[in-house]
Design brief:
By secondary structure, chain A is of the alpha/beta class. Chain A has helices at 40-47, 69-74, 91-101, 108-117, 133-146, 163-178; strands at residues 2-11, 14-24, 28-33, 55-60, 63-64, 76-79, 151-155, 182-186, 197-202. Chain A folds into 2 domains: 1-75 and 150-204, 3-Layer(aba) Sandwich (Rossmann fold), CATH 3.40.50.300; 86-148, no CATH class. Chain A contains 6 helices and 9 strands, in the order βββαββαβαααβαββ. In chain A, the strands form 2 sheets. In chain A, strands 6-7-8-3-9 form a 5-stranded parallel beta sheet, with helices on both faces. In chain A, α3 (91-101) packs across α5, α4 crosses α5 (133-146) and α5 (133-146) runs parallel beside α6 (163-178). Chain A is globular. Chain B has one domain. In chain B, α2 runs antiparallel to α3 (45-67). The chains are: A alpha/beta, B mainly alpha. At the A-B interface, α2 and α3 of A face α1 and α5 of B.
Chain lengths: 204, 222
């Protein structure tokens, strides 16, 4: 369970939000809403521990995330604005490196299967610089197919995806929630997540 | 623990192999700068022998500097650095891996080509050997210290110049003892003391510098 308590965010002299709190229980999804510049990405970066909050506390399984960095990171999957893929490497190689850095062992078949699911079958060995923007996003999203870590933090996951891929991703997120996973994400698109308890959190 | 270091080294070497132009350009820079001196000074072997250690070492410092700005910048730009910082392993270990990979790509080739360049300065066999050894032992310290500078200037405008201003003064001890070892050997004093100090600096740099770089990276990611 992820709990945020009385969070405050300052960017320069600007107070983006204060007194923000919520709990995220297994099987729940939080849709983070807010206008541009409201601090959605800042909040997500606080939740993953990259941005220390001005005040307030974030707890994972009852303990502050600062005190259990390694354990928390092992339970956390973050997908940011950037795809974190290398243009010089192929989708398969990118997939392997990402899994290793996340401390997971990856077998070849699972990786190929995940890439096939995101519609990159036949392009596994093509350097990523030859892929389109949407395809690069798919390479990054392929990790979610095999990711079994309980907490997903997704920043605009639907950007650059076509209609079919948006549906596919919604299914993947539903399956994650049904397994007892948790997710928090920002999006400007109205996407229907078929399963799990979906809540909205509006900031700004 | 070692697994993550090897994973990072393997990835960085794979990336370096895909864009060999970077390695080759730093190496050619080193070769050209060093070769200009004998051409400019002329065939005065006594003078060249005296200049050799300093020239080779200064060129090695500058060649190492060339690849430093990209050490973290590429990973920062495409979001990989965030993922690395969110890895369940300590960021210091990951930076250790990146530092070792940087040395394998930028320092090791310099050491391998140094004896050939030393011949242009009419260095004797034992001096050539010590020169190679100093560059081999000293360049990991350059990568380690340089990584701190690269991490501190990450994401800054005009970071390249600032990086040189930050890092080059810190390279001075390595330069003094690296070039000093060769001079001591040439003059018959023996360079063992210099080499030991150089090895100590490298050990300290590889052991501690990555953790300082990791702290700087965390600030850059906020």
């Amino acid at each position: 369970m992820l709990e945020a308590d009385n969070l405050e965010c300052l960017r320069g002299d600007n107070r983006l939000f204060a007194g923000l709190g919520f709990t995220l229980a297994p099987g729940e999804l939080i849709y983070l809403q807010g206008r541009n510049g409201a601090g959605k990405t800042s909040l997500l970066r606080m939740l993953i521990g990259l941005l220390p909050p001005e005040s307030g506390d974030i707890r994972w399984q009852g303990e502050s995330i600062g005190k259990q960095r390694d354990e928390y990171h092992a339970a956390l999957c973050y997908l940011g604005h950037h795809n974190a893929i290398k243009e010089e490497l192929t989708p398969l190689e990118n997939f392997h490196h990402a899994a290793r850095f996340a401390g997971q062992d990856m077998d070849e078949d699972a990786a190929l299967d995940a890439l096939a699911q995101v519609g990159l079958a036949g392009r596994e060995d093509l350097p990523c610089r030859y892929l389109s923007q949407g395809q690069k996003r798919r390479v990054a999203l392929a990790r979610l197919v095999v990711d079994r870590r309980p907490l997903w933090v997704l920043d605009e996951p639907f950007v650059a995806l076509d209609v079919a891929a948006v549906d596919w991703l919604a299914q993947i997120i539903s399956a994650h929630l049904q397994r007892g996973g948790m997710a928090i994400m920002t999006t400007h698109q109205a996407v229907e997540i078929p399963a799990g308890a979906v809540r909205e959190l509006r900031i700004g | 623990m070692l697994k993550i270091i090897f994973s990072v080294i393997a990835r960085d070497l794979q990336l370096a192999m895909r864009r060999q132009a970077d390695i080759v350009s730093a190496l050619f820079f080193f070769v050209i700068v060093v070769s200009l001196f004998p051409l400019g000074i002329g065939p005065e072997t006594d003078l060249l022998r005296k200049l050799a250690p300093g020239v080779l070492w200064v060129a090695a410092l500058l060649a190492t500097m060339l690849s430093l700005p990209r050490l973290f910048a590429d990973d920062h730009r495409d979001g990989t650095l965030e993922q690395l910082a969110l890895s369940p392993y300590p960021l210091g270990l990951i930076v250790t891996g990146k530092t070792i990979a940087h040395w394998l790509v930028s320092g090791l080739p310099l050491a391998l080509i140094a004896p050939i360049l030393g011949v242009q300065f009419d260095l004797a066999a034992d001096a050539l050997w010590v020169l190679t050894l100093t560059i081999l032992i000293g360049t990991p310290a350059l990568s380690g210290i340089g990584a701190i500078g690269a991490a501190l200037t990450l994401g800054l405008r005009g970071g390249g110049v600032l990086l040189s201003l930050l890092v080059l003064p810190l390279y001075i001890p390595v330069l003094i003892f690296g070039a000093g070892a060769v001079e001591a050997t040439v003059s018959g004093l023996g360079g063992d003391g210099h080499l030991s100090l150089l090895a100590a600096m490298t050990t300290a740099a590889i052991g501690f510098a990555p953790w300082a770089s990791a702290a700087a990276l965390k600030i850059a990611l906020e």
